[in-house]
Amino acid sequence: MTDTMKALAKTKPEVGLELIDAPIPVAGPEDVLIKVHRTAVCGTDIHIWNWDEWSQKNVPVPMITGHEFAGEIVAIGKDVDRRLKVGQRVSAEGHVIDLNSEAARAGHFHLDPATKGIGVNRQGAFAEFVVAPAFNVIELPDDVPYEIGSI
Question: Which of 2, 4, 11, 47 is catalytic?
């Protein structure tokens, strides 16, 4: 495996995306590295492409976009639980939260004020590889095609 990958990124504060070479991300201790097989386009991606007012306020540049995806685990952080394994088919929830926040500890994950979005303000999945916290990873049954798992 080389040290770089192809990715679609918002590289300039203007309309459009650019195909770039980017470093392959590295999984931290509680993360998994996923080889992306399929992605889907969401309304958020259209906002980012158009570089509208919301995007200008929320998306730092440069940013690899895309948050709806499916693929296979190729590396696992040292603290990831046993439910996830290299070679496993997966997708992931795109909202990355602080599990130690008051909201998360109360079970109100959607209210975590430190939430980061994969492909919004954390590097995304319009790329050959993406890193996601193990907490966010969702196992895909073998009978669910990557095309469906990505949405």
Answer: 47
Residues 6+ apart with CB under 8 A from 135: 30, 99
Residues in contact with 53: Cβ distance below 8 Å, sequence separation at least 6, in sequence order: none
User: Is residue 47 among the annotated active site residues?
Assistant: yes
Q: How far apart are CA 70 and CA 35, in angstroms?
A: 8
Domains and CATH numbers, the chain: 4-141 (3.90.180.10)
Cβ neighbours of 113 (radius 10 Å): 9
Active-site position among 44, 65, 67, 115: 44
What is the pTM (predicted TM-score) of this model? 0.93
Contact 49, 68 (CB under 8 A): no
Residues near 78 by beta carbon (within 8 Å), at least 6 away in sequence: 29
65 catalytic residue (yes or no): no
Encode pLDDT of 94-127 as tens digits.
999 999 999 989 999 889 999 999 999 999 999 9
Q: Is the dihedral of CA 83, 84, 88, 91 positive or negative?
A: positive
Q: Is 51 left (phi over 0), alpha (psi -120 to 50) or beta?
A: left
